[in-house]
């Protein structure tokens, strides 16, 4: 790796950073589709984390030099890229220096999960593709061995994940191994017959590594983690919110706003529940829909139904509310592997669209799927939500930088867009009464978690006008009780969500705060157009907004207002 970047602008520097990071971290290369045939497994060791930090410091030093050499300042596009680089790399360095890279166990998105998920992003079309998979899978134990080095360093420095997160990961690893065949053997069986011996041998090694990690976590790590609090505390929480949003928050203002949003949405749900089932509360109405509402039966059937729904959304929205480029029109509905967290999710396309964007549904063992709580979620995960944004970024990457359209993103902007997309479909009249109750259920979940995420991590008091626990300090148990009382989600989903919030401080609030910025930016742009005597062109605004690339929330609102 060179010590100097051959870059003369922030965008060139950002692209050089991505390519050097892809050399350093194979997961980045695979996610972006930059190194076909790459069979390396991620190295999660402290040494590799330190190398990434050093790379970040070199980028910031180079950026400083560019700014010193450009006293007149960068143009608007270069300035946006420079601000993004400085913010994203800067906050990650703060996190590294405070030891956050050692607290990596949680029920979603940890290195434990990322090492397995990497295989789902790899091409599987040809025998050579599977040969690469076999070689990488054989190295899976090395990846877990490097993760153990980081976990041991955390134990040594008394910077451990909370016992709740550790216990949850232990249980998830058990799910990967249970049954007649492990997940790894099931995955390997999809490969060609000519490589089955090699794939099965690699799967055996991966299973042994998972079992060893599970034993290590249970017998060595978990005892040392005892006493680590579930709550992050104010300092860690505010740092984490900056990582997720590219913005600093006023926790008390956000807490009060989140509570007001909960009350607003709850009032709408009460009115709609009365229409669906007179005399029922919202939760009772959703329980009734679970039994009597429209449904899809069968796992493959629900996957196909979700695919048809996304394809229809693309056809209906294109040309009216968005201009959707041909490569963006491909998105795949998938069933999530066992042992995943409970929430649906999305994975981005490769930068050259060789791998399409994909939505993933965890079935949680179900074979019957009520429709009311799926529709808005797939507008969120697919189109016009995550897929439309991330695939459009890939489409315009040549006009920005690879960094601005991939690694520079943060959940405030992206999850905010996905919530905005759900609201847009509501505004456009896409939901019937059942589906709208599901949409409001998803909305109230996002509002409640602003309250309980802040409440649990900062140990705030429950508002006095709360129907549950007024005046008490928020705890995991109280948060779970409150969420169960207000949403139609299954108990196992709610439990998984609470654990997720505790393991990812500040991530859960980025959705609603991001949506707030997108809505404010749209209304400011509309007001500006009207002040000029012009009609506001929502489709043009959408496409300009989707072509900005990544921005932190601190920069997003005023940028949207100017479009």
Q: Radius of gyration over alpha carbons?
A: 23 Å
**How would you classify the quaternary structure?**
single chain
Give average pLDDT, whole number: 95
Distance N terminus to C terminus? 40 Å
Strand order of the largest sheet: 2-4-3
Strand content bin: under 5%
InterPro entries: DUF885
Protein name: DUF885 family protein
Pfam families: DUF885 (PF05960)
Write the layout of secondary structure elements.
Blueprint (H helix, E strand, L loop, with lengths): L9 H15 L1 H7 L13 H23 L7 H22 L13 H7 L9 H12 L1 H18 L5 H15 L5 H6 L7 H30 L8 H12 L5 H26 L5 H11 L2 E3 L1 H19 L13 E5 L9 E3 L9 E5 L6 E3 L4 H7 L4 H11 L14 H17 L5 H26 L17 H11 L4 H13 L6 H22 L6 H9 L6 H9 L2
Parallel strand pairs: 2-4
Antiparallel strand pairs: 1-5, 3-4
Structure explained in plain terms:
This is DUF885 family protein. It holds the Pfam family DUF885. It comes from Nesterenkonia alkaliphila. InterPro entries: DUF885 (IPR010281). The protein has 563 residues and is mostly helical. It has a domain at 241-503. 62% of the residues lie in helices and 3% in strands. It has 23 helices and 5 strands. It has helices at 10-24, 26-32, 46-68, 76-97, 111-117, 127-138, 140-157, 163-177, 183-188, 196-225, 234-245, 251-276, 282-292, 299-317, 375-381, 386-396, 411-427, 433-458, 476-486, 491-503, 510-531, 538-546, 553-561, and strands at 295-297, 331-335, 345-347, 357-361, 368-370. The strands form 2 sheets. A 3-stranded mixed sheet has the order 2-4-3. The relative contact order is 0.11.
